[in-house]
Write a structure and sequence with these properties.
TATA-Binding Protein; five-stranded antiparallel beta sheet; 7 strands; disordered N terminus
Length: 172
Amino acid sequence: MSGRRRASTYHAGPYARWHGTDPKKMAAVLGPRYHTSADLTAGTKAMNAEGMADILSSFSVAETADRLESLLRARGVKIFARIDQAAEAQAVGLSMPKTELLIFGNPKSGTPLMVQFPSIAMDLPLKALIWESADGKVWLSYNTPEYLKARHRLDSAPFRAVTALFQAAASQ
């Protein structure tokens, strides 16, 4: 990956290796926006958590969260909560980089899955974490559909359409 900033970037982290997915094959499928830990440039700290994808945002934390919330609402998705974690830390005398958690979903889609696969209730409603890294970059991170499929032994990867909304929220 060159030193220039990309509008959005995927990061599969150790999940790709653990799950047996070949990072080169994933890059061929997802294109230049996908990256692994080895691809990160010096100073860039993506989440690098198992089963999570990180998209580099072109906007601030608040703007990215606003854009995602607006995109979700426009599609009839319910926003259960939006938590400003940095503000909550400040309220108890602590500090942390700007971080917001958006919790959202559609009970019509999620309920049948929870009935068939009760363990997925641990990951529903869905969540998006918008956060600022130490180098000032803003990331939108989420559990990948493939991770949810593997974790809960689902028949297919759920909620793939949401990935496009994440991309749109983070890109100009």
